[in-house]
Please model this.
Amino acid sequence: MTDQLRAEVRDHYARAALAVIDGPGCCSPIASGEPAFGPGLYTPEELGPLPVDAVAASLGCGNPTAVADLRPGETVLDLGSGGGIDVLLAARRVAPGGTAYGLDMTDEMLTLARRNAAQAGVDNAVFVKGEIEAIPLPDASVDVVISNCVINLSTEKPRVFSEIARVLRPGGRLGVSDIVADDDLTAADRAERGSFAGCVAGALTFSEYAAGLTAAGLTGIRLTPTHAVGDGLYGAIVAAVRPQAGSPAEPGDADAAAAGLHAARALPKAGAVVLGRGSAETQACGSSGSCCG
Ligand SMILES: C[S@@+](CC[C@H](N)C(=O)[O-])C[C@H]1O[C@@H](n2cnc3c(N)ncnc32)[C@H](O)[C@@H]1O
Model:
């Protein structure tokens, strides 16, 4: 099942990349009008200097570079970098002297991302093929791990969390955008609301996210919901830190899930969309069904 789901995810995003490489971009604000996924989550100042195809290929559910507080000279790793939008934004923020790595398992996405980086004239972005469950970078080599709507797509999330903890330097930070589910939603409820490749069926609840990060040894955990994307489903920023050797877990960690859930339930409800199941957005994106949603 794990291999089959992963193959479905790879195929879904290969088609999404090819839709941009071969034709008009999917999921642009013009194409979809849908604010929950894609480039509508970035400011015009961020999007302005980027190649059209980097914007068109944006399939995220937040803007992790806006919250990751990136600094010149840092090494950043984007898990599931897709067409490269967050890597290009991060590369500019860590220059001079820093490097932004993008990791993705889908060849077509890597081709698109490398082309976008060349078009953008960004020379401190490096795109690497691999899986986020086995990150091909050395221990303690990264200052900041970012990711945008990808961890929900993993079939082995505990491995992803322990790989994040391994590659982060002590004191290194995690800043991720992801879909997070209300604690009341069972796995069956989530599967009913959307597909795995569409970023819904595999979404963790607030409690599961906080527990997974804690089990991997991360601390300073914060789950900040930003917008509702469906019934009991939210776009959220997930932040954490790899502690310095010997430092204890932060006291707030135990309350992180409850605080995130409380804030999520106070958000305005999403419009009536069923993500990843023939929604208006998916139809707008053409027969490739290439949106994360
Ligand atoms: C929803 S798209 C998001 C892309 C990008 N982060 C963005 O914001 O546009 C998911 C991306 O993650 C990649 N991906 C999914 N599961 C992965 C895994 N287990 N390992 C590596 N890449 C993965 C897919 O190939 C795809 O490019």
